[in-house]
Specification:
With about 325 residues, the protein is α/β, with parallel strands linked by helices. The chain is built from 13 helices and eight strands. The protein has an eight-stranded parallel β-barrel with strand order 1-2-3-4-5-6-7-8, surrounded by eight helices. Helix 11 links the parallel strand 7 and strand 8. Bound molecules: dihydroflavine-adenine dinucleotide. Dihydroflavine-adenine dinucleotide binds next to strand 4, strand 5, strand 7 and helix 12.
Length: about 325
């Protein structure tokens, strides 16, 4: 089924007027708190420490995307480097049976300059290189998020180039893109860390599947390719159908619990995250923080009409 509200909500994610309206409601802050660890690094670190202490790994996202000036891209890099140093100082025990770094950061190349009007790809690559060098020094991993399809080629090319120096650098593939099965084949080799997600942007029909059933079917085909390959798949989904398929593929391919990981978003299916972790699976929680939460929040609302209803009801009763 296609969610009829999804295109409208995703369109709102790039509307400055909608942003002003939503951020003006005091109740918005309460809803943001469900999905975002806080606006400051201090708030983030408290959440990351609690998740680590409870046996879950983390991937931290400093919110911000589609940066339009170099200074801002540089500021984002500086924040990531400070974040990496503070994450490295956390107590972060390795999970038994896995060589995965328990602490990782996730970064969008558009936040590092990819979409700058001049030299975007070069600036983003240089900034990502500096970020990875700091991460390597601190034994923290990095995964590059996937954004809208116009950035896919540049993003994957950048990851491929930097993996020569930073072999642990991960990438995200979006199963809703028609190209992704082929990308999975290309990235299923030894040492490759691929986070497979469904995809959260508004994409045209010729590049992406739109029906939920088609997206899930594509996810399952892509997951099988990654699980049968020799890389390290990161199963980023909350969908029970996907999680059940992952479990079957793990059994069928003879992977051990340290050969792949489950990943979910902060604030979504927390009970399921804990259940998987208690069953000795490697589970990583994607934890965003920062003041630029608007785009992230609208994507979470678009994924689930129930979230939007909850949000609108809260706004109505508080305004
Ligand atoms: P689906 O949307 O079908 O949801 C299945 C079930 O999960 C729902 O029925 C509900 O129970 C629960 N659920 C899902 N979303 C929810 C929500 N917002 N609120 C409450 N419950 C919800 N996308 C992208 O384009 N680029 C990226 O780099 C990333 N990175 C990323 C990292 C990680 C770790 C995760 C888990 C996801 C991403 N995503 C992403 C987002 C991803 O593309 C996708 O939009 C969401 O994960 C929702 O898809 P599901 O596979 O969970 O299935």
């Amino acid at each position: 089924m296609v969610n009829p509200l999804r295109p409208a909500i995703l369109a709102a994610s790039s509307s400055p007027r909608m942003k002003r309206l939503l951020t003006g409601f005091p109740v918005t802050a309460q809803i943001v708190r469900r999905f975002v660890a806080g606006e400051t690094r201090e708030e983030l670190l408290a959440v990351a420490a609690a998740l680590s202490a409870g046996g879950r790994m983390v991937s931290v996202d400093f919110l911000g995307e589609y940066t339009t000036d170099r200074e801002q891209a540089r500021d984002t890099l500086d924040e990531y480097c400070a974040l990496i140093r503070e994450l490295a100082a956390l107590e972060r025990p390795m999970l038994p049976g896995t060589t995965a770094q328990p602490v990782e950061v996730s970064v969008k190349l558009s936040a590092l300059g990819l979409t700058l009007p001049v030299d975007g790809p070069a600036v983003a690559t240089e900034n990502l290189h500096l970020l990875c060098a700091e991460a390597a020094r601190c034994a923290v991993w990095v995964t590059v998020d996937a954004e809208d399809h116009t950035t896919t080629d540049a993003t994957l090319a950048t990851v491929r180039a930097l993996r020569a120096e930073f072999p642990w650098l991960g990438a995200v593939l979006q199963a809703y893109l028609r190209r992704t099965e082929a990308d999975c084949r290309a990235f299923a080799g030894a040492g490759s860390r691929i986070r497979l997600c469904k995809g959260a942007y508004r994409e045209p029909h010729d590049v992406a599947f739109r029906r939920a059933s088609e997206v899930t079917a594509s996810y399952l085909r892509c997951l099988e390719i990654l699980m049968r390959g020799s890389g390290y798949p990161m199963v980023a989904s909350h969908d029970p159908e996907v999680l059940a398929a992952a479990e079957r593929l793990v059994a069928g391919t003879g992977r051990a619990s340290g050969d792949f990981e489950y990943q979910m978003l902060y604030g979504i299916r927390d009970g399921e995250q804990m259940r998987l972790a208690r069953a000795d699976n490697a589970v990583r929680v994607y934890v965003p923080y920062g003041s630029q939460w608007y785009g992230y929040l609208t994507r979470r609302l678009a994924e689930r009409p129930a979230n939007l209803t909850f949000f609108l009801r809260a706004v109505a009763s508080n305004s």
